[in-house]
Amino acid sequence: MSVRVRVEPEVLLWAVERAGWSEDVIARRAPRLEQWLAGGTRPTLKQLEKFAHATHTPVGLLFLSEPPTEEVPIPDMRTMGNHAVERPSADLLDTIYACQSRQEWYEEYAATNGLPEVDFAGTATTSSDPAGVASEIRRRLNFEVTDRAPFSSWEDTLRQLIDRIESIGVLVMVNGIVGSDTHRRLKPEEFRGFALADRTAPLIFVNGADTKAAQIFTMAHELAHIWLGESALSDAAMARVTGNEAELWCNRVAAEVLVPLGAIRSEYRGEASVAELERLARIYRISTLVVLKRLYDARYFNWDEFTQLYAVEHQRIAEILRSRRRAASGGNYYYTQPIRLSRKFARAVISDTFEGGTAFRDAYRLLGTKKHETFENLASEIGVA
After folding, report:
1. CA triple 284-127-142, angle to 5 deg
2. How would you classify the pairing of strands 232-234 and 193-196?
3. Phi, psi of 76, rounded to the nearest 5 degrees
4. What is the mean pLDDT of the chain?
5. How far apart are CA 132 and CA 223, in angstroms?
6. pLDDT tens digits, 252-300
7. SS3 (DSSP) at 337
8. What's the rounded Cα separation, in Å, for the pair 96 and 88?
9. What would the pLDDT profile of 314-352 be if each residue is shown by its tens digit?
10. What is the Cα–Cα distance from 361 to 358, expressed in whole angstroms?
11. How many whole angstroms separate alpha carbon 142 and alpha carbon 136?
């Protein structure tokens, strides 16, 4: 006889909301939920375990008398309007926990191998001149406007920026899903990225479900948090003009890294047409939306004019991106996985595993692989013999 268990309706609803399920998903994946909520029947233990797995909820939490309060494990700088964002999703929490686990492993690896500390981490404060910090970042990354001339596109700029940030000691992970689970897509409207500050293993995570142009800005924004030496979960909204002091400072630094104000003042031809925005975007290898924000910062138009121009341009770009997504084909796992994991991190894990420092089972967990063949192919992709 099946054992049926009592579960509080509020806890079941919490699990569904935490998983981000719509009514259609509920009907498909938990068709008995309405009966459980109404009290007409109770789930069996097996059904509850299946429900916990589907909603990515630790099964023990479903036996609580009321929904638990889950807090983001790092400072949460996000806002919706002027209010803090409530109730993080399971996808967001699992992503942060996975990155913290990888960072912890890399800290031990760095200590064991005598790797130097990252000398710039924590050297700035929100009182530091954003333009001065941005200049230092561009110099260290070899990311001056003239250095970007060979970049062919936003995508190329993003790849170059990742490589250059990793070359100065920061782990960079870009992923649009939780781990390798294509059914768990991260939502840019929930968060765009986060930074995990550390002297030996600073880490930047960028939501890869966002547009490439937005990812570039987020990456520069999170790098500014590393310069501050502060961990943070961000929405990295480039159009924000009010809010948390650190977020606003990081936005100013990111904007100046990507488009120095003095440079755009000398380049701008005085008309915010699509052609002019695209011309400037090609020069700096960034989004037309970042160009618009910098023209506003340079005081070429007021706030009302900026918000109107920004809304129109945002809609235009969204339509272009929708067309591209429809035409796009699936990606190559062995190309995308090192970007998801950080090429620097993946290379360290694989090398240490081959040398006997890390057990293969631990390496599989850290890299999100299950088969040795996948591990070997990944090693070949990133050039580890």
Report:
1. 30
2. antiparallel
3. -100, 110
4. 90
5. 14
6. 999 999 999 999 999 999 999 999 999 999 999 888 999 999 999 999 9
7. helix
8. 11
9. 899 888 777 766 555 556 778 888 899 999 999 999 999
10. 8
11. 10
Nearest to 292 by CA among 319, 317, 320: 317
CB 89 within 8 Å of CB 19: yes
Between the ranges 2-6, 45-49, 124-128, 184-188, where is the mean pLDDT highest?
124-128
HSE value, Cβ hemisphere, 13 Å, CA-based, for 136: 15
Cα separation, 359 vs 178, in Å, equals: 23
Q: Where are the beta strands (DSSP E) in 235-278?
A: none
Rounded Cα gap, residues 116 and 112, in angstroms: 11
Q: What span, in angstroms and rounded, lies between the C-alpha atoms of 89 and 351?
A: 34
| C-alpha–C-alpha distance, residues 278 and 253, integer Å | 22
Separation of alpha carbons 362 and 357, rounded Å: 10
Residue 33, token pair as written in the block:
């939920």
Place of tokens 């569904």: 16
Place of tokens 């929930």: 190
* CA 108/CA 112 separation, integer angstroms: 6
- Beta pairing class for 203-207 and 171-175: parallel
Residue at 318: amino acid letter: A
Beta bridge partners of 195: 204, 232
HSE value, Cβ hemisphere, 13 Å, CA-based, for 208: 26
